[in-house]
Amino acid sequence: MKRDLGNFTRGSQLIEHFGFMFAAGLKGPLIISLIVMCWMTWWTVSEGMSDHEVYLAWMHAYGVGYRFMEFDPAHDVTVRTAWGRAVTFPISLLDIYPPVVRAWHHLLKLVGIALAWSTVILVPVFVVWVWFASRFGGKAKERQHERGAKLTSLHDLETRIRRHNKAEQRKEWSAKLGNEWRFCSAAQLARAFPYRPSSIAGVTYPWRLEQSHAMLIGTTGMGKTVALSDMIEEARERGHRAVIFDLTGHFIEHFYDASRDVILNPLDARCPRWSVFDECRDEAEFTAAAEALVPHDGGGSEQFWVLAARLLFVEMCLKLRARGADSNDALARELMTADLAQVHKLMRGTIADPLTAPEAARMAESIRAVFNANAKALKMLPQKGKPFSMRRWIESADDDGGFVFISARYVDLSVCSQLLTVWLDLAMNTLMTLDRTRDLRIWFFIDELGALHRLPALEKGLQTARNFGGAIVTGIHAYAKLKEVYGDNMAMTLSSLARTKLVLGTGDADTATWCSDFIGQREVRDMDEGYTYGFNNARDAVSLTTRRHIQRLLLPDDIKDLPRLVGYLKFPDGFPAAEVKLTPVDRPMRSKAFIRRAADPFPTRPIARELADGSTGEDWTASSAQEHPSSNDDGAGRRLDPRQGVLPLVPHEPKTGEGEERVQHRGSLTDLAADIGLAKGTATRPAVPREGQSADEMAGVQGAGSVPTRGTSPEAAKTSGDGEVPDMSAPIYGRSSASDTTPAQSDKPLSEAPLALTDPRRMALEGDASEVRHTPREARDVGEFDIEI
């Protein structure tokens, strides 16, 4: 109740106050209107009636007043005529006396005319006064722009740009021709100065600001592709060349021309044959390609593994080029799938030697794993077809208006993204090796920048490509994705280097706030209105107070709530931002977005051969080479672990004879390990007859395989079966000396001989005696061993 009384009091006082103030505002115009009407009536009557008619009109007024006062109606009145005679009759007959009636009607007519003219004059004046007073009152409270960015209409922006371009064009003509350009025809000037500003979102660029680069920001479906399609179509019509990153295939469908365009997609049938060796000529160019192929993750510093993988790639490429094996296949074979020992052999003597040393096998495999994870797309490139070099295409001076489409489907992006990054990075780096020019040389349209890996050349391109004729147009969905790829500082740097912004509807508050900062802020002056009222009307008043503050041109919520195909365009060089509307164009489909390339044939597997026991299996040497190096290579070309599913048993034939008991194996678990080959790094291989060896000889060799361990006599071996502890001073784990080697083993090739223990590097790798290889012997089933404990 108390609150309602307060509202009533406040409302009644304000109504009374505003009513009195409104009446005070009308008092002046009403007084002026009354004066004007009276003057107009007097002037009209004076000019339209004679003195006698005025006299008769006054007599009519006298009679009306006399009767109104109800005086004697028989009272006589004398009226002068127009000829100077006097006529007397009762005052009641004055209203019907013809001269008086005519004079009164004439007066009323003249007064009506005067009022009509007064209305014609006063009404427009009154309307103007009301408009002026309202406008003045609105201006008094209107927000005043003091400094900062501005938001204007699209028509005003186009007018400013048109005026600016005309002035800049004349400056350019005067700088080249002086005043002679005034005597040239429009056709001559067009031939001498072919540059014409391009457009974005239907708005013409300010003079030569295409090369200040542009960034299109908006979530999915807001119109980025529509704006890019319009720009690509204009570039095609003007004969400009362009490198287009097309993730959806939309641009390929509508703009691809097989006669002059190229599609770079390792899985597309239209992709030409490409090799990194065709792009890079020296170590610096290989290093630049390595930065794109093995990207930085956007953190504060470069990681060791990334730098090491890049270094390994560069050194391997230089080594392959020096050997004349500069191809993608050679790179994959010698670096990505080769044994670490072979890689180290190639890298010996280079600065990548310590990175591949067998002493640091785990580190070397980690470095190569980082490279393989990023460079796996190199193995997917086509091996046949017409060769293509991005460097030669950029350096060529052809004016055919060709496009290079760098494309991949979303499903293939996880495999191809590094390769797409390399191609785009090569194009930008090559452009910046050309001669400087003010003219537009090539466009870079990058839709969905966050889909690519970090582009090392993008920052340099945004900074300096304008000096070499490059114009970069990028599109992003969200600011968070840009920060994820490039890091906070680099993301802010890239966004600031792209000075033209087309802001469309966004889907998150962070991106909307980021875009609001691009549109700008301004300092404004506001008038705050205050009211004072009291019991005495003398205290009633209205006060206006000035206040200055800074505000955004657009709130983040304004950007989030933008409808489709509606956005704000902001040019550099002091041009205000304006709202724009995009219009989709239904273009005909010229080609398919993706045509699957036939897969290259897989290498045939090794032919299985018959083993000594009659079973068949794969060639262990060939299959071992086909396995991933990290699973079978310790840096010295040796397998670290046996294959899964293969029990590494060392064959041991029982030795029987007349009056001789069957030889029992060692009773201890240590001797058992020596016989069944559980030592680390042991490789099993069935005994294979040598050429010319008979079956009997082979059987003899197998029978000789049960020789006692060095330092242990046959008697000791038999005694150990009764539970006695054998001589532990002798070497264990089945290590054999040279004298224990069977003839079959001595005839084995050198590459299959046991590792020499005098090699310090291999001793360091082996770590202890338990990692020394056994001499391979014939394989036996586990059930054939007799174990007594």
Number of DSSP strand runs = 19
**Spatial shape:** elongated
Average of pLDDT: 77
Percent of residues in helices: 40-55%
**In percent, how much strand structure appears in the residues?**
5-15%
Strand order of the largest sheet: 4-17-16-13-7-12-11-8-10-9
- Uncertain residue ranges: 602-637, 640-789
Largest sheet: 10 strands, mixed
Summing up helix and strand content along with how strands pair, one would put the structural category as alpha/beta
Q: Tell me the Rg in angstroms.
A: 50 Å
Count up the helices: 26
**Ends distance:** 103 Å
How is the secondary structure organized here?
Elements: H1 2-48, H2 51-68, E1 76-80, E2 86-90, H3 98-141, E3 144-148, E4 151-152, H4 154-177, H5 186-192, E5 199-200, E6 203-204, E7 214-217, H6 224-238, E8 241-246, H7 250-255, E9 262-264, H8 276-279, H9 283-293, H10 304-323, H11 328-336, H12 340-347, H13 361-375, H14 390-395, E10 403-407, H15 413-431, E11 437-446, H16 456-464, E12 468-476, H17 479-497, E13 500-503, H18 509-519, E14 521-532, E15 541-552, H19 556-560, E16 566-570, E17 577-581, E18 609-610, E19 616-617, H20 620-626, H21 629-632, H22 669-676, H23 695-703, H24 714-720, H25 743-746, H26 760-766
Parallel strand pairs: 4-17, 7-12, 7-13, 8-10, 8-11, 9-10, 11-12
Antiparallel strand pairs: 1-2, 3-14, 5-6, 13-16, 14-15, 16-17, 18-19
Helix pairs in contact: 1-3, 2-3, 9-10, 9-15, 10-11, 10-13, 15-16, 16-17
In short:
This protein is α/β, with parallel strands linked by helices and 789 residues long. Among the domains are: 2-141, no CATH class; 622-784, no CATH class. Helices cover 43% and strands 13% of the residues.
